[in-house]
Amino acid sequence: MELVVVIILLGILSAVAIPRVMDTSVFEQAAFRDGLAATLRYAQKTAVSHRRLVCVVVEVRSVRVRIAPVRGNTGCAQDLPGPDGKAVFSGGAAAGVSPVGTIYFQPNGDVTKDVGGASFWDAPLTVAGGVPSIQIAGATGYVQ
Q: Is the separation of the CB atoms in 111 and 70 below 8 Å?
């Protein structure tokens, strides 16, 4: 009798738990979110430390970081390699982010929607798969 109950419980666990563990898209989405947040923090810190404009171009499945070649320049013309040596951070097929567009990290630490720094960034970045969204405080540049 006890053996039958154990076999039934193992059958239920294998039917419910194993597919969840084997679904790698959840892990890919969480890893993409964490990598995206780290990339945004890196861009903000680089803008402040180099006193230059840093642009983060957010696409659905990838992010490109660019920096102004000289101080005072209002265009991001050079790729900014991250800690891994690449200027592009990309997620897997299950990754996705919205809204897409360019986020401007100003030399003073502000995060804005435009090159001139007239309007602060105020929209959270939502990553697919139900992982928590990434909040960016426009006035301080804080990424959480």
A: no
Strand, helix or coil for residue 139:
coil
Q: 140, 109 in Cβ contact below 8 A?
A: yes
Contact 115, 104 (CB under 8 A): yes
Answer yes or no: are the C-beta atoms of 98 and 134 closer than 8 Å.
Answer: no
Element (H, E) at 58: strand 54-58
9-22 confidence digits (pLDDT tens): 988 888 877 766 66
Biggest CA-to-CA distance, the chain = 79
- Whole-prediction pTM value? 0.77
Radius of gyration for the alpha carbons in the chain, expressed in angstroms and rounded:
20
| Measured distance CA(111)–CA(109) in Å, rounded | 7
- One-letter amino acid for residue 86 of the chain: K
As a residue count, the chain comes to 144
For domain 24-127, give its CATH number from 3.55.40, 1.10.4160, 1.20.140, 3.30.70. 3.55.40
